[in-house]
UniProtKB/TrEMBL annotation:
One of its GO terms (cellular component) is cytoplasm. This is Glutamate-1-semialdehyde 2,1-aminomutase. GO terms for molecular function: glutamate-1-semialdehyde 2,1-aminomutase activity; pyridoxal phosphate binding; transaminase activity. It comes from Rubellicoccus peritrichatus. Pathway: Porphyrin-containing compound metabolism; protoporphyrin-IX biosynthesis; 5-aminolevulinate from L-glutamyl-tRNA(Glu): step 2/2. Its main location: cytoplasm. It catalyses: (S)-4-amino-5-oxopentanoate = 5-aminolevulinate. Belongs to the class-III pyridoxal-phosphate-dependent aminotransferase family. HemL subfamily. GO terms for biological process: protoporphyrinogen IX biosynthetic process. It is found in: Cytoplasm. Gene3D superfamilies: Aspartate Aminotransferase, domain 1, Type I PLP-dependent aspartate aminotransferase-like (Major domain). The gene is hemL. Homodimer. Its cofactor is pyridoxal 5'-phosphate.
Length: 424
């Protein structure tokens, strides 16, 4: 057996920080990361032969749990035919048809290889379509590591206390207007002073990279109205929320049609996939139809499409959203009652199969509220839970995900472990 410790030692010599994505390094909770050698259902099997109930779910994609037999079979069948063709392939058409069928605002869609590519391409398209250059984003929202969006970004960028990355020219960031989430006045003011220059608003439809923050009633509707009246495009980043909260994502739940939608994670069934789509009139501005260039050697890759199609079809067949939401509510209630029993202030924002923990008295409505909450308790709970076999995201500013493979015994066990870990 090669231990996690040994692998991490080797990794650090040849990979910056020993990881291929920063939050994996456990910097914000302390300690060293474990390595996973396999995963099945709701469990990870570590290199040290520990079994962990997993609430990271590969950072969102694994809504069916790990290694689902139907997804594996779809990939195996595709693999028989070849790994990449460099020409259009039939899977891409099925995938696009599914996304157009299921996501309310999407009339045409283009596949890419990650969520980052999806948001990057969506904002380029918004700029190309409108002929304007400024983009509004909200503090704490993470849209991948796109240069101009790494301003007050959430997820790993926030975790490291360095929201603005080195290497992003000031001129790029200058095209980004950052506003506090849930602040209608700030939004109106930004449009009043820059309206003619604003190509679009990009927003995590439910921000989930700074813990989990839910919109105040009407906030998303206001965005829609302002964009429509000023000629800017509304871009929903549903990379995390798409297919997680409903087949049609937050736009279905809230009944709001963005102009463009960025997608990723679940639509790849665990393989590297992203997509962006929206109104046909806008999407037709993309090359080769239009003047906005965007391309990808492996975009629409047959293995990735096969995995994603299988994942989406499973969701259509099973419609697991009520069941997932019940599991989310059970964990939320267990956490809240454990905290209450100990007199510890805790907020557990939860929607469907997503939840997060904020150690604070008040509802968290924005980035400043989130970052001023207490983080030490989370670190303690994280390590106690890990010790007892429950893996939460290794940062106080990430969202936990539940999969359909988290059965009753896994959820009950999780509630037991989390409750016991509230012993401060
Ligand atoms: N947008 C959102 C909302 C995300 O959560 C993420 C990744 N966590 C991204 C974009 C970037 O996706 P990727 O890591 O696949 O590039």
């Amino acid at each position: 057996m090669i231990s996690s410790e040994n692998l991490f030692d080797r990794a650090r010599r040849v990979i910056p920080g020993g990881v291929n994505s920063p939050v994996r390094a456990f910097r914000s909770v302390g300690g060293s990361p474990f390595f996973t050698k396999s995963a099945d259902g709701c469990r990870l099997i570590t290199a040290d032969d520990r079994e962990l109930i997993d609430y990271v779910c590969t950072w969102g994609p694994a809504i069916h749990g790990h290694n689902h037999p139907k997804i594996r079979q779809a990939v195996a069948e595709a693999l028989e035919k070849g790994t990449s063709f460099g020409t259009p392939n039939p899977y891409e058409v099925t995938m696009a048809e599914l996304l157009v069928e299921l996501v309310p605002s999407v009339e045409k869609v283009r596949m890419v290889n990650s969520g980052t590519e999806a948001t990057m391409s969506a904002i380029r398209l918004a700029r190309g379509f409108t002929g304007r250059s400024k983009i509004i984003k909200f503090a704490g929202c993470y849209h991948g590591h796109v240069d101009s969006l790494l301003v007050k970004a959430g997820s790993g960028a926030l975790t490291f206390g360095n929201p603005d990355s080195a290497g992003v020219p000031a001129g790029f960031a200058a095209e980004t207007i950052v506003l506090p989430y849930n602040d209608e006045t700030a939004l109106r003011e930004a449009f009043a002073s820059n309206g003619e220059d604003i190509a679009g608003i990009i927003v995590e439809s439910y921000p989930a990279n700074c813990g989990l923050i839910l919109p105040k009633p009407g906030f998303l509707q206001t965005m829609r109205e302002i964009c429509t009246s000023s000629g800017a495009l509304l871009i929903f980043d549903e990379v995390m929320t798409g297919f997680r909260l409903a087949l049609g994502g937050v736009q279905e739940v809230e009944g709001i049609k963005p102009d463009l939608t960025a997608m990723g994670k679940i639509i790849g069934g665990g393989l590297p996939v992203g997509a962006f789509g929206g109104r046909a009139e806008i999407m037709d501005c993309l090359a080769p139809e239009g003047k906005v260039y965007q391309a990808g050697t492996l975009s629409g890759n047959p293995l990735a499409m096969a995995a994603g199609i299988a994942a989406l079809q499973l969701l259509k067949e099973e419609m697991p959203y009520n069941r997932l939401a019940d599991a989310g509510a059970q964990i939320r209630d267990a956490l809240l009652s454990a905290a209450k029993g100990k007199g510890i202030p805790l907020q557990v924002p939860q929607t469907g199969s997503m939840f997060a923990l904020f150690f604070t008295e008040n509802t968290v409505e924005n980035f400043d509220h989130a970052t001023s909450s207490e983080t030490g308790h989370f670190k303690t709970i994280f390590h106690r839970a890990l010790e007892a076999g429950v893996y939460l995201p290794p940062s106080p500013f990430e969202t936990c995900f539940i999969s359909t493979a988290h059965d009753k015994s896994a959820i009950d066990r999780t509630c037991e472990v989390l409750t016991a870990s509230f012993n401060f």
